[in-house]
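Notebook B, p. 112. Complex prediction, attempt 2.
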Amino acid sequence: MQDETIVQLYFERNEDAIKETQIKYDKYLTKIAYNILSDYDDSRESVNDTYLAAWNSIPPHKPISLSAYLGKITRRLSIDIFRKRNRDKRKASQYSVSLSELEECIPGYETPEMQLENMELAEMLNKFLRELPKDARNVFIGRYYYLDSIRDVAGYCGMTEGKVKSLLFRTRCKLRDYLKKEGIMI
Amino acid sequence: MNSEMLHDALNMIDDDMLDEVYNLRCRKKKYRFITNIISAAACVCLILICVSLPHLFNSTDYVGDTLSDSASQNTYGTYADGADYDTFGDIGAAKEYPTLIVEIEKWQDNGFTAKIYKTVDYENLEIGENIEVKFNGDILVKETDENGYSYEKRMPTRKEFPNGSIAEIEVTRFADNIVYTSMIGKCEGS
């Protein structure tokens, strides 16, 4: 089914929208989640949450690219699960307990300043990526957005693993210099 | 700023750039499927070629309906492809190389001296000319029986081809009056 039709089903509040999304994008979303979480159950949870989030957000959102929209939700949810899982693991030590207790002193996990900073960073990243040659950009996004293995990236970009590694290294160096130039310290 | 923030920022990359990689990732699967089919087909072809190679080799041999002509000791036959071929004494020359009929004079190491008995399709030598014949390492000896011909990869022996006997040889190379051959066979009636 075409993406436009699926989005239309969401707008009509037709539950087939989720079914069709699942048919078309389940594998793709599970792969994104699994690349982050390395756990099948957690990945399933993340993907199911994605369907729910899509149901709740379309409308009002009307994504032009449904794959990118769903992928972003899955990625964000999976990263959240990953961070929560790591926090839970650390809870065993007294140091971690004190950290979580002190966290309460911080007014909010994500302040408006932080959000603004994130938006600015995203803008810079977009600009940086657009200036990159197509090959380097695809490799960078494949590796750091989709979190695919170097082998997989080399496979779908039609390069050797060595070339992917060297492209990534050079792109990371360029990004560091670019962010420094823009006044962001890493 | 830490790498987590970078990862969060990556979640706000423009959709068109993500779609480009998404399409590549999808194409990869199709491409893999196609390459798998091509690989499988190539393997099947390779196996078929390997299996049929000996048959192909034999099919270039003379498989004709041999008709003896006692007057001239010539026989006429056809190759597997139907082409007529005039040979001497039921010799059935292999098609790839020109053939000579020689009378063996004296055996030497890895060959013999001989006299040209008949030039079947080799024009550089004349009947009666003395030559030296050397065997190539992968020489085939043509065996004749009631079913036709077959080839065996081995060195020919003096006992099979005694001095004074008539043999057919393929001329794989000719230099300094030496004929290098990769096939030798007995001539009927020799």
